[in-house]
Amino acid sequence: MSAITVPDGTSRAPLDPSKLVIKLAEVLNAVPEEPVLGRTMTDHMLICEHDPVKGWEAPEIRPYGPLTLLPTANILQYGGNAFEGLKAYVGPDGRPRLFRVEKHMERFARGARRASLPDIEPTAVIELLKRLIAVEARWVPDKPGYGLYIRPTIISTRPYLGLGPSEHAILYIILTPAAPFLGAGRPIALYAEDQHVRAWPGGTGEYKMGINYAGIIGPQAEVQLRGYDQTLWLFGPDRCITEAGIMNFFVVLRREDGDFDLLTPPLDGTILPGITRRSLLELADAHTTGLTTLSGLPVHRKIHTHEVVVTMPQLRTWAEQGTLQEVFCVGTAVIVVPVGRIWFEGEDVNVLRRVQGDADVSTSASECVSSALRDRLVAIQEGRVNWAGWSVAVDEL
Q: Which residues pair with 82 in a beta bridge?
């Protein structure tokens, strides 16, 4: 790989997987039967440091353990970081698989640039990630709905106080096995929040950065004390829906012709461009154009996708009118989770599908768009369905 030339004319070494050093742990931990996301880490991690003069040093796979930072490190003082989240799954052939890893790493690189951190080449991170997964293959759960959660992170280690772009950085990747998250399909309850704001236009809401998450912990804790699972973040006087907790938000409406409208807020800079979000929109379009048929949905039932502003008053009206078919949230950890009720303006809005006496409506209520999309997505992630090269065995990347 060629060196990177910077504005002052000097060259810095790029992130180079060929220089990888592997130091294995002498004693391996037991893999839990029922893992909890983030509580149990695998035996090894990957780490690489960026020097402001030399560039990226040799990456290393080594036993999982603490980082060494100065008290003045930028990450501790100003929060300079970016991270990513994706999963590895076990395919029918027993090999670990990664889902749309290129899209995840492209988003990771965009976040690093927004945080003024050293450039990271997505293909280099993918190669290093492959090597780490190969070392930790026994940690990829071989159960339906389970996966190995992958957290690549880059942090600024700029060693002195003061704001500015950082050429001091650490890139690391850690792994944690994960069982199905957020009730494994149980409808969740949301609390529509208009006193706090998760993100705003021109900010960093579209990036995976720590500063987007620290500020939502307090409001989220208050919501859970009230008996709700997640915060539904609203923005502006019209109370536009943005995200639910840290998930993308979807609405399904029943059309007069029997088809469905699938709505999700547009990527306006306040919303994370989720890989699951994007994948579900593309699968819905493929069903509508006849490229595939989602299980549980007849071929003639089309799903018309829309990336449009959705307000909470609109959602309440659709629920009252009986137009509302489903509400659900999506993300890497949860995949797809249905919503049962949303607190708004002093009362709960029931957003579960309504089954009326009419035979056609009763029949249509069994046609669950979120379940159909989730089933197809999980089948692709686990390699049971081959679709558009989205899921690839680690040794084939």
A: 154
